[in-house]
TrEMBL record:
Pathway: Carbohydrate biosynthesis; gluconeogenesis. Residues 203-329 form the Fructose-1-6-bisphosphatase class 1 C-terminal domain. The gene is fbp. It comes from the Bacteria. The keyword Membrane does not apply. The lineage of its organism: Bacteria, Pseudomonadati, Planctomycetota, Phycisphaerae, Phycisphaerales. This is Fructose-1,6-bisphosphatase class 1. HAMAP family: FBPase_class1. InterPro entries: FBPase_C_dom, FBPase_class-1, FBPase_N, FBPtase.
Amino acid sequence: MPRKIDGDFVTFTQFIQEEQNRHPEATGDFSWLMSGVALATRMIGSYIRRAGLIDVWGDQGTTNVQGETVKKLDIMANDALKRTLGYRGNVGIIASEEDDEPRVISEVEGEDSYIVMFDPLDGSSNIDVNVSVGTIFTVFKNPPEIEGAAKSVLQPGSKQIAAGYVLYGSSTVLVYTCGQGTHMFTLDPQYGTYLLTRENITIPQHTPSYSVNEAYSHGFPEGYRRYLDWVKLEKPRYSSRYVGSLVADFHRILIKGGVYFYPETNANPEGKLRLMYESNPLAFLAEQAGGAASTGTQRILDVMPGDVHHRTPLVIGGKRNVDEVLDMLQAG
Ligand code: AHG
Ligand code: MN
Ligand code: MN
Ligand code: MN
């Protein structure tokens, strides 16, 4: 059931506005920006719900800067976010998994503005088969002293002002943090608005569950292979779950616990997941929920990006689950 505060249901916009009053860094009309993100996700959600009825399935016929085949829905989702954020005057720069370069979209002289980065459609391989996909976003301050979009976006995840994702699953949920806990909202399809359904989520510290694309394990660093042998040979209660949409795999862990990892592989020696659009926002949400996120050797939120499409290995989940993996990596 949606949470009531003072007898009223709380919408996402109300919640942001109240948090903004308490958040010293969130100057400018932050709730205006977030309402743009929420609007875009409602648009994307409606495309997904009508997939099959409108022309959404299949490939666009191009390859993106990540070297991936672009799906039609990747482009539609990217356009929805760019269009809605383009009208928000306080958004200075946007960067997307689907675009080659970050872009300045408004020059706000002498005023605070924000950088918004996003993975418009996470889980592309699941679009055509009716499996959950998501949208991930993160917000940084646009540093006025730095010239040029390419340099302004190069900030560690510890500087995120807010981050979140929307999971288009059996229901549509928005999970959000601005550094004061991790909270969940559920889209009420009748009202067309996100209502607060879980406040201050905490990830269970340990759950006997792991999530990884094990088909690549022969190419993982040895510690990960040792971990996989250990859970299978010595921990008979462990189970494995892997959707292949990071947002869906992470959401399960946020609610039920466990660990997700996507290490270095033969095909992706730096790891596959993108720091700015995937690892950072989920690491921020995980830490705010009492969990942890690491590259295997370093806290994700401390990684200094080399460029906007920087990739990292990712180990994320309940604190003790993550520690079990890291202990295996450190065992030499
Ligand atoms: P995207 O669809 O945004 O490119 O992200 C794909 C990512 C992520 O969603 C998922 O967890 C991972 O790629 C799956 O990769 P594998 O198919 O290699 O397991
Ligand atoms: Mn992609
Ligand atoms: Mn993704
Ligand atoms: Mn994507």
